[in-house]
Recover the amino acids of this structure.
């Protein structure tokens, strides 16, 4: 599945008069959706949205990572920088807002075509039909989850579309809670239809475990801890335990050579098969199938450096050493920073082109911190638009930490929750929580606060921080915002009740009377 078949499914346009002229070179709804192969192509087209710049290939990381307290921007592109500083002057800003919003709904549109048309196709094996339907439900749920995380609020600002959209359709608006509930419904259908594992070329497609893990994420955003705990229990203690575990080597989760490993619950299959340019063209014949993120986040002289990390992450990592009196190995693979060559003496090169990393860092970085995860630095001289490294959207370490949070929040055994965190720490040779954070092992509230740091250390720059901040309520109180300000000055511009979510693009809000703009915009 590393190189998904690229297909665009045409939408029939209905004109003012009927003209019976058929173009034999055009795929239409009337000529497509006839065979099992058509159904497979259809679901592949939904996966294909992962390669679009508006989603995970590029711009979504600006919203999930740079908007949080982990990252920020000093880009010379003023508007791009401002959108990481809660300065939203133009709600239609394409790269900062509209493109990602549009692509989320385009993915939902493609999934809806599968769910609408595949039931009418005859299959030799009905199990294959069920698996295709299950993947479409999963992918639709995934995009509704992100719509709720990024744009969802108390207003009826987001449309829920469950059938192939048509020109002029104006869906009713729904609240953040209702969109999460729709995602939950989709993941529920998916987990009933998907296999526990795929084999061969299909390895990497959505599984039952992936559906349960993302359903748990939705439940957690709604504070439904018991329901989320039940889903995560399947992966940790139930049938899923035979499929998932932590890798021995932390870096295996970000290497192009260790993809679809035992820790991967769901990952996007990227490829450098087509070394195309920026892939900005929605109708490219030979599309870019790679990850663009590194080109935008790499250090000066390597990439555009439109995004970088706040130094507090390095400081937090260095507060505690491992059992061999070394710095946490996760720091090495999370960030580039001045002084890293002394902290990790075997790290003597940057992007394979600098023999003296210390001098280069001193002359070029000046105290700044840059993204390392999902870069191509360990095998290329530069970052680029077609990095083939798969993005692990959810991995087992995340599942263990979520499970620990749900156990504690539902008043379960605190010792069980602590054991799950210790399992994640032990993989990177860090001491048990009781060694340096004894109170976190005996008090629920102290444990939950420490868990916030543990998630940052394990999952930094993996797109988890923004939904975490929302779930923990740090965006809802002045005390929470003051804490975030201490780590990220961008939060000095944060307005509670407004910047908890993005504005709906003006074009969307103005053209659909059934949706309401988000509060205070």
């Amino acid at each position: 599945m590393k190189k998904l078949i690229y297909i665009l499914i045409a939408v029939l346009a209905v004109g003012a008069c009927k003209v019976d002229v058929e173009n034999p070179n055009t795929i239409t709804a009337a000529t497509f959706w006839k065979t099992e192969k058509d159904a497979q192509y259809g679901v592949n087209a939904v996966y294909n949205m992962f390669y679009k710049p508006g989603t995970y290939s590029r711009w979504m990381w600006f919203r999930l990572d740079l908007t949080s307290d982990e990252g920020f921007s000093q880009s010379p592109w003023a508007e791009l920088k401002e959108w990481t500083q809660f300065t939203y002057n133009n709600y239609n800003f394409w790269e900062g807002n509209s493109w990602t919003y549009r692509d989320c709904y385009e993915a939902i549109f493609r999934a809806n075509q599968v769910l609408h048309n595949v039931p009418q196709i005859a299959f030799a094996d009905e199990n294959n039909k069920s698996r295709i339907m299950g993947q479409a439900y999963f992918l639709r749920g995934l995009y509704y989850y992100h719509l709720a995380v990024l744009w969802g609020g108390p207003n009826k600002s987001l449309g829920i579309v469950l059938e192939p959209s048509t020109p002029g359709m104006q869906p009713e608006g729904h609240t953040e809670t209702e969109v999460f509930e729709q995602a939950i419904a989709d993941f529920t259908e998916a987990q009933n239809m998907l296999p526990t594992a795929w084999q061969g070329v299909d390895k990497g497609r959505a599984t039952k475990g992936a559906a349960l893990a993302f359903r748990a994420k939705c439940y957690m955003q709604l504070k439904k801890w018991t329901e989320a705990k039940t889903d995560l229990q399947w992966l940790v203690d139930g049938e899923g335990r035979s499929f998932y575990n932590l890798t021995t080597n932390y870096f295996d989760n970000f290497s192009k050579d260790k993809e679809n490993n035992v820790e991967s619950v769901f990952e996007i299959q990227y490829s450098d098969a087509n070394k195309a340019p920026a892939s900005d063209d929605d109708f490219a014949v030979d599309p870019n199938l790679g990850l663009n993120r590194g080109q935008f986040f790499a250090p000066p002289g390597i990439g555009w450096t439109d995004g970088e990390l706040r130094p507090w992450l390095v400081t937090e990592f260095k507060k505690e050493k491992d059992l061999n009196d070394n710095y946490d190995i996760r720091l090495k693979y999370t960030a580039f920073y001045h002084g890293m060559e002394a902290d990790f003496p075997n790290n003597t090169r940057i992007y394979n082109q600098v023999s003296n990393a210390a001098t280069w860092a001193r002359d070029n970085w000046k105290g700044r911190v840059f993204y390392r995860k999902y870069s191509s630095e360990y095998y290329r001289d530069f970052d680029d638009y077609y990095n083939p490294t798969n993005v692990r959207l959810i991995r087992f370490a995340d599942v263990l930490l979520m499970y620990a949070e749900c156990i504690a929040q539902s008043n379960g055994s605190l010792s069980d929750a602590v054991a799950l965190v210790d399992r994640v720490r032990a993989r990177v040779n860090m001491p048990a929580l009781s060694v340096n954070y004894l109170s976190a092992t005996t008090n629920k509230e102290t444990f939950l606060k420490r868990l916030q740091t543990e998630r940052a250390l394990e999952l930094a720059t993996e797109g988890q921080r923004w939904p975490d901040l929302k779930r923990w309520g740090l965006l809802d109180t002045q005390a929470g915002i003051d804490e975030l300000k201490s780590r990220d000055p961008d939060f000095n511009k944060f307005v509670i009740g407004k910047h908890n979510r993005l504005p709906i693009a003006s074009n969307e809000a103005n053209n659909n009377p059934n949706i309401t703009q988000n509060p205070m915009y």
Remarks:
- The chain is about 40% helix and 5% strand.
